[in-house]
Amino acid sequence: MKIESLHHIAIICSDYEKSKYFYTEILGLKIEKEIFREERQSYKLDLSLNGTYLIELFSFPEPPSRPSRPEARGLRHIAFGVNNLEENIDFLNSKNIETEAVRIDPFTHKKFTFFADPDELPIEIYEV
Fold this sequence. Notes:
Layout: E1 9-13, H1 16-26, E2 30-37, E3 42-49, E4 52-59, E5 78-82, H2 85-94, E6 103-104, E7 111-116, E8 122-127
């Protein structure tokens, strides 16, 4: 097997409009394509970052919850690199999005923190 790159991350949300707003207006991802799949009563929103296809956001009627805390099996979190951690924390806080205390990676000595999307999916921002 020879993987060339990560193609996308798929996220199922409980409130499509709320999550669409969060990922586009708060995180700044660009909408590439939005379709409603009648047979599944589901939206599929393709999102990109800096021209790279990154996230598929799905809505489904009554999706079950998935535990993420305490550390459950499965996808742990998604992480985005940022140039200035404090600036991004201030922005998130100004939008009433709570961030955890800043931590220092013991190996790289870089700063990072976590916050959550509307469905409590953990998201990390890591100072690059």
